[in-house]
Target: Phosphate transport system permease protein
Amino acid sequence: MTKHKLLQPSKESRQDRHGKCWVGLAIAIIGLLVITILIFLCTKGVALFVRHGIGVFDFMTGVKWSPSEGHFGALPMILTSFVVTLVAGFIALPLALLVALAITEILPERFQNLLRSLIELMVGIPSVIYGFIGLTVVVPQLRQWFGGTGFGLLAAIVVLVMMIFPTITSMTVDTLRATPAAYRIGSMGLGATRWQTIWHVILPYAKGGIITALIFGMARAFGEALAVQMVIGNTVSLPNGLMNPAATLTSVITTGIGNSVMGTPANDGLWSLALVLLLMSLIFNGLAQLTKGRARS
Model:
């Protein structure tokens, strides 16, 4: 073997270098796309304030949304978005936690796999299906029980609970299964019952991951558009009752973007709502990553 051949990189080394180049190129393309979208959305989102002279404070605190009259108050949609998200999250969490505990700690293995498969199937169901269920089942049932139209905050909350429940459950199952077996064995060895072990050992260990699952679920709920738009009633007003129609950021954007002309105050106002939605989503994701990092440490 000549000295020249010894100095040549091996086939595996060349393949590894080429693989790294392709991965780097893919990362660069994705990063460029994300930056482009952010710049585009920020540019469109501030047009209402720069081009039409609407104050940011007035936009964030105003309570009337009527672009045709020059009123751009986003506070009702922001508050409604937070209300339906928080309520849905805190209803879905205990349900998801109970199912996750059943999958990881209580049921026999064959039933665990069956239930886990059903949960994973629910995660993949399109949001329009949940919205259709809400429109054809939830809304008529609420109308029968409580009167009124059936459209409103409660219908949106029920639909969002159905949507984020499988997401929170799936992530919680992964978190609970990450608990070291030595913790369970040690607790049982000290005479603790199964429920004592769950309550005093497993749940405290998995707390950070469970909170992360909740935040991810709420982030999905906050950004959901179609399913919420189908059942909430789409009336812009401050939240004043579970059975009263309301509107979220996403529902107003969904219903209005196709009926407005590009460059008009009405259209720019919708882009400003989209910018607020983006900022809120980034905050949710940041909280999730922060919680996940603390849980690992």
Notes: The domain at 58-296 is CATH 1.10.3720.10 (MetI-like fold).
